[in-house]
Amino acid sequence: MTVKLWNFFPREALYECYQCARCTGSCPALEVAEALGPRETILKCLNLGHDEVVEDERLWVCCTCNVCEDRCPQKIPISDLLVALRNSAARRGNIPDKLQIAIELLAKTGRSMIVHQLDEMRAHHGLAPLMPVPIDEVREVLKKTKLDDVIEF
Amino acid sequence: MKYALFLGCAIPIKYPGFEAATRRVCERLGIELVDMPFACCPPPTSLKMVHHDSWLALAALNLCRAEEAGLDLLTLCSGCVNTLKEANHTLKKSDSKRRKINRILEDQNHHYKGTIEVTHILDVLYQDSVVEKLIKEMSLELPMKIGCHYGCHYFRPPKIMYPDELSDSESYVPVKMDHLLSIIGMEPTEYSRKFLCCGSPLGANADQDAGYAIVKEKLGHIRERHIDALSVICPSCFEQFDMGQIALSRKFKDQSKIPIFYLTQLVGLSMGMTPKEVGLDVHRVKSKKLLESIGIS
Question: Interface pTM (ipTM) of the complex?
Answer without folding.
Answer: 0.96
